[in-house]
């Protein structure tokens, strides 16, 4: 058994090394920032950020509006995340940090995304015991009316419902077993979108999910379940406008199937929905230590993915989940076992453009105009 396991590990290492092509060309013409290249093709380029990082790192705060024309508060508009507690009690909201992120975006003339109104994670401590069948609808509608209503007219798009699909939970409709589902049934998704449409009628309303990019059994099951969900929502007149594909990629993954992914995007577009790439990054946890090799593989993953995604003109935005490496969520959730700093984002720790930046720029430059 040990020999078989060792052989599989050695083969995987071989596959990862085979991903590196030292001759691959990432040359970019000109010095224009990503937002300008995206705008030239009718696209939006943006990044997530956390208020505490913008305050701690003025260089990041200065660079963000140079490269991006959209800002996504990574923590501050969730019910609870990190040092941001938007709804500390069932009856009280604290918009201090969310307001500061909105002010930052407005000051720098950046579009603002709302992330996220309804999710089963990132909830305050009172939530697990404080929600039940008698009050769930009131908690949901009050939250959306209060939060989306506060920023009405200032938001480009809301992630109204986040990660509601989980085929492994075994339901025929593919929905994830959550407290929202338990208390309100499957119609909680429709309720959330209808409430958001009333609270902020000018915003693009988005269903957002992950695990949809690769040619694996799990990703295929998720793609099928999400398409069925979208079809149900459209059939019942739910005011859904777009789908967000998180696109947390793995630089060591070898099973990206361009044609299957292209077909999935086309299927979404055929429903009359726009598509946003909402949380793009490339994990380098399992890649070689050599920075040059790592950066080439990460850049290749960006370019291979985006060159397919951006062929679909229903795709209107690309948002990376962070702009520079030190502030990536992966630094905490997926650190390297060798202790080396991770390198999953377009800019490095000194805000220098990396091959990943060049790969994204090339995809913007070469994609069709929408």
Q: Give the terminus-to-terminus CA distance.
A: 53 Å
* Helix/sheet category: alpha/beta
Strand content: 15-25%
Biggest β-sheet: strands ordered side by side in the sheet: 1-2-5-6-7-8-10-11
Please compute the radius of gyration using only Cα atoms. 20 Å
From the spread of the alpha carbons, the general shape counts as globular
Indicate the mean pLDDT: 96
Q: Which CATH class applies here?
A: Alpha Beta
CATH architecture title: Alpha-Beta Barrel
Number of structural units classed as domains: 1
Name the CATH superfamily classification. Glycosidases
CATH fold label: TIM Barrel
Helix count equals 14
Would you report the number of β strands? 11
Q: What's the helix-strand series?
A: HHEHHEEEHEHHEHHEHEEHEHEHH
Residue stretches low in confidence (pLDDT < 50, at least 5 long) are: none
Oligomeric state of this protein? single chain
Share of helix, binned:
40-55%
Mind summarizing the main beta sheet? 8 strands, parallel, barrel
């Amino acid at each position: 058994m040990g020999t078989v396991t060792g052989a599989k590990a050695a083969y995987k290492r071989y596959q990862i090394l085979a991903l590196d092509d030292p001759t691959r060309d990432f040359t970019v013409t000109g010095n224009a920032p990503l937002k300008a290249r995206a705008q030239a093709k009718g696209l939006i380029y943006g990044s997530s950020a956390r208020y505490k990082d913008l305050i701690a790192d003025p260089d990041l705060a200065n660079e963000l509006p140079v490269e991006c024309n959209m800002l996504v508060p990574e923590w501050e508009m969730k019910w609870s995340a990190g040092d941001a507690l938007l709804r500390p009690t069932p009856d009280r909201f604290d918009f201090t940090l969310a307001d500061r992120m909105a002010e930052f975006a407005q000051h720098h003339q950046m579009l603002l995304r709302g992330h996220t109104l309804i999710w089963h994670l990132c909830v305050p401590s009172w939530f697990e015991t404080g929600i039940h069948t008698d009050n769930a609808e009131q908690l949901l509608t009050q939250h959306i009316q209060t939060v989306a209503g506060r920023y009405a007219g200032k938001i480009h798009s809301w992630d109204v419902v986040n990660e509601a699909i989980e085929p492994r939970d075994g339901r025929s409709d593919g929905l994830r077993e959550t407290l929202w589902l338990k208390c309100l049934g499957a119609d909680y998704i429709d309720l959330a979108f209808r409430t958001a449409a009333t609270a902020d009628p000018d915003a693009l309303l988005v269903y957002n999910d992950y695990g949809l990019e690769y040619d694996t059994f799990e990703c295929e099951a998720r793609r099928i379940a999400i398409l069925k969900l979208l079809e149900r929502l459209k059939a019942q007149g739910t005011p859904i406008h777009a789908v967000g594909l998180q696109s947390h990629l793995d630089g060591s993954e070898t099973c990206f199937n361009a044609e299957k992914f292209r077909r999935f995007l086309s299927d979404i577009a055929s429903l009359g929905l726009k598509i946003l790439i909402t949380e793009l990054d490339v994990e380098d946890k399992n890649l070689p230590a050599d920075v040059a090799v790592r950066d080439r593989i990460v850049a290749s993953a960006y370019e291979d993915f985006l060159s397919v995604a951006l062929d679909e003109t229903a795709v209107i935005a690309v948002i990376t989940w962070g702009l520079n490496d030190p502030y990536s969520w992966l630094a905490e959730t997926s650190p390297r076992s060798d202790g080396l700093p991770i390198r999953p984002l377009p800019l490095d720790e000194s805000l220098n453009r990396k091959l990943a930046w060049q790969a994204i720029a090339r995809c913007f430059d070469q994609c069709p105009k929408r």
